[in-house]
């Protein structure tokens, strides 16, 4: 697929000078040692993430700056300065300490995106806990599996959600405290292990002697998105903050005057690394919107708060495209100056749509729960090649390895995407799965599980998950390439592509396609989409079968679950579906 690059022009003519001015030079000169000096360390090389994101700012003019603009789905709004959040999280940390929570205990949140969730997570870090945020849309089994896997001690939730998971609480013997956040103050009986968040906060002091955790002490447990199988509990240590801080500065290009909005929920790693740690460690004001997706609602948030930097995901961008350009045109989006995307491959069509309709192309970047922070990215200063994930972050050595994961392959050749191990936010283990963790490394390389290519100029191009790549008549075809071609068809909103077994050619390509509003499935449309695909793709990559569907199965973080399309197609067990968006 060939698209013209999106040119960036001269740096000194840009309205805002990017934090990264010279990629090649920065790549040469970047040292984690220098990043380390920009953060505040305790004696003996100790560091606590919550101190970096809140308390250290209290000693500077940032103390009264608004850290959080919160807007609920019903239009309620609240704002909190860095000082407010520092004191509130101190209170919560005091409460946890009083309840007997100790360094290393697992402290989970299971609630909507309200300020209390952010206060709880930061308070949990202050007391030395290992924090685990869960999506409020999880069902009882999804909650149980995760809390049981890592023997969580504390759960912070709401009356409605705790009632919804009542049946599994007895199966969680390690869980000794359930803290109930009752924003609406509806009468609620605090029986068993339950205590009131508001009661604890009223009694607690604003002052807290923060746990001086070691840089290697565990800080966060994040369960992966479950796109390829059962979610794994990924562990990050306190020094991960160096990665969040540096990438928020140089990739998301956050500047002191920015109003930043990351649309991700903390239940997905993007919602913590870049919905808490990256922006606040840089002293940036951010918006948190408590509602779900809605094109009109999202544009209203941008216009109301005059959001300047926006970080979202391909699935959301595709839904905005589906909603139609006129919805975007009805809102004042001129405050935006920089837009980024992560989570799935970003179709070239979506990059170009951003440029045409919003006036800014989306900058794709790639990373995983395991990597903790962005590893490959498009930067403000570099031309965008639509469909490419960009170039490795300065501190990162990325490579494409051969089938044995031993040798690097030449530019243009497809292989395993690997990263040279050893960056601060790299995961420390998979909880309870040491062998699986170890199997992800080969020599000096961390093997990501994704396949990709690198071109002559060092841009990386995503091909597919190693599990998803289709072998058809000896050709390896990545689903992303086929899906991207299909969604360029004017009637197609979303496409999910899988290989189904075939006696002759190993696998044939099948595409599940959902249509934009105003289009109806028909044989004629199917033929037209096939014809269209033939013009865009090599013959081997053209879908043999197309099935119209009303929507695709996606994870709660918005990723197409191709394994589920495949299991359903072949009548096989569906496996873990805890992260499926209903
Ligand atoms: P699981 O590991 O449970 O199957 P998951 O891999 O989807 O779930 P995450 O850690 O949230 O869980 O996602 C990381 C993966 O998302 C990457 O390995 C990659 O496949 C995909 N991804 C993220 N960003 C991009 C991107 N910009 N382009 C292409 N793929 C991306
Ligand atoms: Mg994964």
> How can the largest sheet be summarized?
9 strands, mixed
Ligand catalogue:
adenosine-5'-triphosphate, magnesium ion
Q: Could you say which overall geometry the principal axes of the C-alpha atoms support?
A: globular
Fill in the CATH topology of the domain at 470-570: GMP Synthetase, Chain A, domain 3
First-last Cα distance: 33 Å
User: What is the CATH domain class of the domain at 470-570?
Assistant: Alpha Beta
**Could you estimate the helical fraction of the residues in percent?**
25-40%
The strand count comes to 27
**Class by SSE composition:** alpha/beta
CATH superfamily of the domain at 470-570: ANL, C-terminal domain
| Fraction in beta strands | 15-25%
| Strand order in the largest sheet | 2-1-11-10-12-13-14-15-16
CATH architecture annotation of the domain at 470-570:
2-Layer Sandwich
Our count of helices gives 19
- Average pLDDT works out at 96
Low-confidence stretches: none
Radius of gyration: 23 Å
Describe this structure in words.
The protein has a domain at 470-570: GMP Synthetase, Chain A, domain 3. The two termini are 33 Å apart. It is an alpha/beta fold and 582 residues long. It is built from 19 helices and 27 strands. The model has no long low-confidence stretch (mean pLDDT 96). Adenosine-5'-triphosphate binds at residues 224-229, 231, 269, 342-346, 364-366, 368-369, 389, 448-450, 462, 465, 557, 559.
